[in-house]
Amino acid sequence: MTVRFRPLDPVKDAELLHGWVTHPKAAFWMMQDASVEDVVREYTAFAAHPHHEAFIGLVDEVPAILMERYDPAHLELVGLYDPRPGDVGMHFLVAPTDTPVHGFTRQVITAVMTELFADPATARVVVEPDVSNKAVHALNEAVGFVPEREIQKPEKKALLSFCTREQFEAAVGVAA
After folding, report:
1. pLDDT tens for each residue of 109-146
2. How far is CA 77 from the centre of its chain?
3. How many whole angstroms separate alpha carbon 118 and alpha carbon 86?
4. Which of 28, 32, 52, 102 has the most CB atoms in a 10 Å sphere around its CB?
5. Among candidates 164, 20, 15, which has minimal Cα distance to 97?
6. Stated pTM of the model
7. Residue whose C-alpha is closest to residue 21's, from 62, 59, 68, 60
């Protein structure tokens, strides 16, 4: 499996993203009732923000991943923890499929983390999934994330977790 990431185009990728973020399996994405126009608006705003980037992940050249990278000192977690230099916030979503492949999502999060740590300035990845999203907690743990504590965000109760480059490399058994 080869994975590469390209910048998301809010207009060209809107139809694709709409199908992903409104799918029942994407409930934690909190865009279930979004229109295509809502998706364009949301990702156009992300593209314009200096501390947020979104990418489409291509698995064997087929779009299959939405990855967001953000600066938690400026977005999402402002005032909820003490950011460190090199902290990078991350969200990811795997495209829905009618034919799930065992282990695929773990390969995806490993590819996402490898991409984030490919930037030498990234020292630690920060995530804040919904506390009730047990599946993503297990995936996060598999790639080295360590939960710190529950936090209350405006839209959800979240599990604040961190993963250093060293924790990731130890968890997946290869250098990032």
Report:
1. 999 999 999 999 999 999 999 999 999 999 999 999 99
2. 14
3. 12
4. 52
5. 20
6. 0.93
7. 68
